[in-house]
Amino acid sequence: MKKKAGRAPAEKGRGKRVENKEKTKRAILRAALELFAEKGFYHTTTKAISRKAGIAEGTLFNYFQTKEDLALYFFEQELDEIITWYERDRRIKRAALAEKLFAIIHRFLERLAPYEEFIGAVYLRALAPTSKLSPWSLQTQERNLRYLRFIRGILAEAEAAGELPPVGDFGAYAFGLFHLAIITHWLRDRSRGKEQTLALLDRCLKLAAHVSKKGGWAW
Amino acid sequence: MNKNEKSGAVARGCRIGKLGFSLVGSYLGYQAQNLLLGEEEKPQRRVRFQQQASRRVREELGVLKGPAMKLGQMLSMQTGILSEEALQELAQLQMHAPGMHASLTRAQFKSALGKYPEQMFREFDPEAFAAASLGQVHRAVTKTGDQVAVKIQYPAIRSAIENDFNLLRSATLPTRLTGHVPAALLEEIRRGLLEETDYVREADNLEFFRNGLSGLDYLTIPRVHRGLSTDRVLTMSYVEGESLGNFLKRKPSRALRDLLGARLLEMHRTQLYRLNALHADHHPGNYLFQPDGHIGLVDFGCVKRLSFNISELDTCQCRRSWRESEAAARHFLALAYGSRAPYSRARKMLPLLERMSDIFYPQSDSADIVIDYRDPKSYAKFREISRQHQKLVLQNKLINPEFAFLIRANVGLGHLLHELGATVNISELRRRVSAAPAVGQNESDESRAGKIQRTTVFPA
């Protein structure tokens, strides 16, 4: 009893510190996103971000050393959001595999929509092999693995249900690349309401479902 | 669904190409056979040829689904090379977009209207209750409590159709060169298809026909909710009724079936003669029947507005106007085969047109034309003469693009009436519908410009 009572406030305090830290991080991200939407990724200074978030510029660097760190954090948050949403949405969990995958990518796109310019800038940066944002940088690996595990889990369920022939981890990797390709298409898509991307996404997933049903993986 | 169905541009391209060739092959074969065979051999050969061609065209078209299907459908209906059964089956083929799952429906709705369906309706059923041309239909309840049907188009269908059409244009080059498939016919189909992708236009059509046909009190046409519609989403009032198949399962009485048959024909004729326009998609799913004899008509995507006055064509045929003078003959033939058709070729049609008019517009008023649509014998002579006419049209390269949608509509309506098993007095119908004030030439000019006000000319 005593022990428990003694430890609780300390844990509470640490928990609160972590929580506060996370709160500040989110406030900075929010401020940054607003500025990115307003002025663009390249024209936003760290000074402006810290002023908008209501913190000292020095404090900002404690959280994010560069704007790229900020972008990394943004994608981490988005991934968290998608995983939580997927786990909670009962309808989508019962849907066919093609619809699940469609809904995941579409939700990503919907959430990215307000920051299209920012995402475009991130994409350009990520092309440089030395960038932290590059899909091959060590900083992105943790997030990539989390994403791959999430998708792998969905594919494994479909495999178990006989909806998909065994595709192994390769399936998740392939889907990840497809996801990147769709985002690229979406960034360039000038059709009304980006409906071309919707059609492309739907048709590709249906085609993949069709091919895999016919045992297309058995090479 | 067909096992052979393939998706993807390449597979579809191959199919369109193949169809192009097989259509050319059919026509050439048919022409050659007409030249080489003696009169007495023709019937047997024709039956065999028809069977082959029917099978080929039906199989190919059933798989194609896009613009190529539409072209094949219209061509085979105009050229009389197919059997009646195959024609009726063809008339029912519809353009199909791939189905949309709930997530895509939601996404497409937002892409078109800027908000999700659950934000704009009190209730929205994520499962479609019907397939529509190029999309699907969902039931919903508006915030004010109205029951509605929401038609949602498959994303980016317009550019898909344009792509298919470019393929089709290349595939049909040989037939266009020989003059059997006039470029104008292709253009007519393209126009019709692209119009179908514009739901704002369909909303205009709905209102045009709702006003124009308000005199037919047994007919229900949905009301458009403009605030909940765009060019890719169309929200309309929900129309009660059953499809023909389900309606017939209840074994409706003979009298009711005859009544419905007469009403279907009256609707058809009223559109043509008073509105100079036609709901040209006689797909059975577009008619909703109610046990009290009410009819609901939905899906106004495929509408043909005539650029000429069809009652004038009728009058000419009743009067046999071509006998009067060469000028009158030229005028009549231009109406029937288009102003571009050369008189020297069109003139060859006159002997057959004489016989045709004797059957369709008998000069003695004593005997009414009564058709029992259940019994093919009852309209065999109409069918036979039409077939001869179509054959001669093809031989003389006189296909009139104006009629492409009309003929398809007629075949579709014939099928509907056959299924319904109705008996209709055609002469009585003609007298009733043409008794209203005729459409003046000036007014039809206005209708060409797409003015809706013209409907106010007609008494409700």
The geometry of chain B reads as: globular
Q: Which parts of chain B are unreliable, with pLDDT below 50 for 5 consecutive residues or more?
A: 1-7, 31-39, 435-460
Which two chains share the most extensive interface?
A-B, 23 and 22 residues
Q: How far from one another are the termini of chain A?
A: 63 Å
Give the class-level CATH name of the largest domain in chain A.
Answer: Mainly Alpha
Instruction: Give the overall average pLDDT of chain B.
Output: 77
Shape of chain A: globular
Order of helices and strands of chain A: HHHHHHHHHH
Oligomeric form of this entry? Answer: heterodimer
Q: Count of DSSP helices of chain A? A: 10
Class by alpha and beta content of chain B? alpha+beta
Percent helix among the residues of chain A? over 70%
Percent helix range of chain B: 55-70%
What is the average per-residue confidence, as pLDDT of chain A, rounded to a whole number? Answer: 85
SS elements, strand count of chain B:
12
Biggest sheet record of chain A = none
Can you identify the CATH superfamily of the largest domain in chain A? Answer: Tetracycline Repressor, domain 2
Verbal overview:
- The complex is a heterodimer of chains A (219) and B (460).
- The N and C termini of chain A lie far apart (63 Å).
- The relative contact order of chain A is 0.08.
- Chain A is mainly alpha-helical and 219 residues long.
- Chain A folds into two domains: 1-65, Homeodomain-like (Arc Repressor Mutant, subunit A); 66-219, Tetracycline Repressor, domain 2.
- Chain A has ten helices and no strands.
- Chain B is α+β, with helices and mostly antiparallel strands and 460 residues long.
- Chain B folds into three domains: 9-95 and 158-194, no CATH class; 98-153 and 198-238, 2-Layer Sandwich (Phosphorylase Kinase, domain 1); 241-460, no CATH class.
- Chain B is built from 20 helices and twelve strands.
- In chain B, the strands form four sheets. In chain B, strands 1, 2, 3, 4 and 6 form a five-stranded antiparallel sheet that branches. In chain B, strands 5-9-8 form a three-stranded mixed sheet, with helices on one face. Chain B has a two-stranded antiparallel sheet with strand order 7-10.
- In chain B, a hairpin with a 5-residue loop joins strand 8 and strand 9.
- In chain B, helix 1 runs antiparallel to helix 2.
- Residues 1-7, 31-39 and 435-460 of chain B have low confidence and may be disordered.
